[in-house]
């Protein structure tokens, strides 16, 4: 069984996101990770990510925290979703709802985007 993802059909939305990343010079690993994070978000909301709401993003980040996802992984997902909503969908209003996290003094600290 092959794990070659190039054989999977690609939705127009995913193709656009990949094109947006390619134009900006994103490396293959980054493109793959960003697509994976957006796909994970879409699976969480059980519909296309271009129909997401601010509440969907809030619940997704709450879910990530509840399952014990660490700040570096949360931040990778934030970067992917921020790119998707800002560049691919031209919805910076949703990207501003995303919260980055870090560990300081043994405690998780999260803050919203300041853009």
Question: Can you give a write-up of this model?
Answer:
The protein has helices spanning 12-23, 28-45, 54-66, 71-88, 92-95, and strands at residues 99-104, 107-112. With 115 residues, the chain is mainly alpha-helical. The protein has a single domain (11-112), classed as DNA polymerase, domain 1. It has a two-stranded antiparallel ribbon. Strand 1 and strand 2 form a beta hairpin. Helix 2 crosses helix 4 (71-88). The chain is globular, with a radius of gyration of 14 Å. The mean pLDDT is 89.
Keywords:
single chain, 115 residues, mainly alpha, DNA polymerase, domain 1, 2 strands, 57% helix
Task: Give a concise summary.
With 115 residues, this protein is mainly alpha-helical.
How is the topology of this model organized?
Elements lengths: L11 H12 L4 H18 L8 H13 L4 H18 L3 H4 L3 E6 L2 E6 L3
Rounded to the nearest angstrom, the radius of gyration is 14 Å
What is the string of SSEs from the N terminus onward?
HHHHHEE
How many beta-strand elements?
2
Helix content: 55-70%
Distance between the termini: 45 Å
> Mean of the pLDDT scores?
89
H/I helix tally: 5
Shape: globular
Strand order of the largest sheet: 1-2
Task: Tell me the number of structural domains.
Answer: 1
% residues in beta strands: 5-15%
Q: Main beta sheet: strand number and arrangement?
A: 2 strands, antiparallel
What is CATH's topology name?
Answer: DNA polymerase, domain 1
Structural class call reads mainly alpha
């Amino acid at each position: 069984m092959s794990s070659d993802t190039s054989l999977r059909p690609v939705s127009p939305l995913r193709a656009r996101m990949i094109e947006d990343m390619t134009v900006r010079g994103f490396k293959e690993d980054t493109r793959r990770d960003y697509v994976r994070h957006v796909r994970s978000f879409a699976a969480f909301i059980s519909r296309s990510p271009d129909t997401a709401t601010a509440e969907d993003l809030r619940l997704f980040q709450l879910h990530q925290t509840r399952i014990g996802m660490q700040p570096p992984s949360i931040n990778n997902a934030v970067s992917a979703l921020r790119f998707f909503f800002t560049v691919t969908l031209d919805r910076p209003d949703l990207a501003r709802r995303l919260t980055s996290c870090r560990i300081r003094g043994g405690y998780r600290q999260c803050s919203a985007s300041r853009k």
